[in-house]
């Protein structure tokens, strides 16, 4: 099942076909081994307050959000093999194709509309 993630402030869509990773195994696997994440796709990892990109084949944009969908922290173009800081108030992480944050004008403090449970 896929769902949409939009930024009401900018009117832009971050993802039209995002998937939710909410089990231990789906969170653990994440996007490891994926060679290309097409525009419009993404992965919502819940619960999550830090990530790593070990075993990944591509750079991604990373959005940390609160339980209410507020953007708390952004990492544009996170390279394979890197890891993020722990964002204490984050409830979830959204992994998106590199360039999505800039293309959508998403900023810290925005409240995203996420059509899936956080």
Report on the structure:
The chain is mostly beta strands and about 120 residues long. The protein has one domain: Jelly Rolls (Sandwich), CATH 2.60.120. Helix content is about 10%, strand content about 35%. The protein contains 2 helices and 7 strands. Strand 2 (about 10-20), helix 1 and strand 3 form a beta-alpha-beta unit. The radius of gyration is 12 Å and the shape is globular. The two termini are about 15 Å apart. The mean pLDDT is about 95.
Backbone shape: globular
Q: What is the string of SSEs from the N terminus onward?
A: EEHEEEEHE
Which secondary-structure class do the elements indicate? mainly beta
Q: β content, as a range?
A: 35-45%
What is the CATH topology assignment?
Answer: Jelly Rolls
CATH level-two architecture = Sandwich
Poorly predicted tracts of residues:
none
Strand order of the largest sheet: 5-4-6-3-2-1-7
Question: CATH superfamily membership, which one?
Answer: Protein of unknown function DUF192
Whole-number count of domains = 1
Helix content: under 10%
């Amino acid at each position: 099942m896929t769902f949409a993630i939009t930024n009401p402030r900018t009117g832009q869509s971050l993802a039209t076909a995002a998937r939710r990773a909410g089990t231990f195994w789906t969170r653990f696997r994440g996007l490891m081994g994926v060679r290309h994440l097409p525009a419009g796709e993404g992965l919502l990892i819940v619960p999550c307050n830090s990530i790593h990109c070990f075993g990944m084949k591509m750079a991604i944009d990373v959005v940390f959000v609160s339980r209410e969908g507020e953007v708390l922290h952004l990492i544009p173009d996170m390279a394979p093999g890197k890891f993020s800081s722990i964002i204490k108030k984050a409830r979830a992480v959204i992994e998106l194709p590199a360039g999505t944050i800039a293309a959508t004008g998403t900023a810290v403090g925005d409240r995203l509309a996420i059509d899936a449970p956080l």
